[in-house]
């Protein structure tokens, strides 16, 4: 009898243990995954800095906007005003309650040149008259003519020394505080146009690493005086050429010395124009030039009223080194 009693007890215990192991704990169902999507539009045609954003996202608990200018928002459909022109990567991130997330990124390009521009027109008394050209609403203007003079007038008039170039800028502020800046090269008769990048650029012989190299020929026209084109084994036959589809009338150019080693600087050169790439007309000739400073930009103006498809700068001598270097070359069109 004793054994008969113990056996069912053991069965009962085993049954209890078994029951505990098989117990199913109901899991919380997983929330649907979030999606992120949005669209944007300019709110006012006269304010290229302000945009409204509308989210088309789903299944999220939290929403976060990053506008690419260090500002953020947790609103569903925010409106944002950028302070400066620029290219902004706007990111929308949604997160659900299980911390799954989704992102969508769109780019807003507020191009400074399309936002604000200005004209400079010769008027009586040998002066230049400046006018804002822009579709934006402005609250204030600040002109800096690059010659030490400034103005806050709508249409200021100033006199500039003939034969000199100046870096002028216009700073326009909108009623919401956004800032648009236009920079232009000017001379006494108007705005000078940089046409360096308007044609096909080539050199007679490049850096050994090619045009894309850190010191390749493209560094001569990248707008950055701190980068340079360096040619090894310089032997006086280097030329730099720009070929245009339609002939243009160039009237000036600039050269900028590089960061180091004066003996690599250009010393003698000439500029030629051509319409077939075979027959050349000399437009300017410089001998014994001397860049006394590093990063020094010198402007050369030449008398030309003819349009050419080809412009070629022949650098016939440097300051004596076996290497040639130059930081920048610009070809310019003067006001007609
Ligand atoms: Ca450069």
From TrEMBL:
Residues 64-96 form the PKD domain. InterPro entries: FA58C, Galactose-bd-like_sf, Ig-like_fold, PKD_dom, PKD_dom_sf. It comes from the Bacteria. It holds the Pfam family PKD_4. Residues 1-19 form the signal peptide. CDD domains: PKD. Residues 184-334 form the F5/8 type C domain. It comes from Anseongella ginsenosidimutans. This is PKD domain-containing protein. Keywords: Signal.
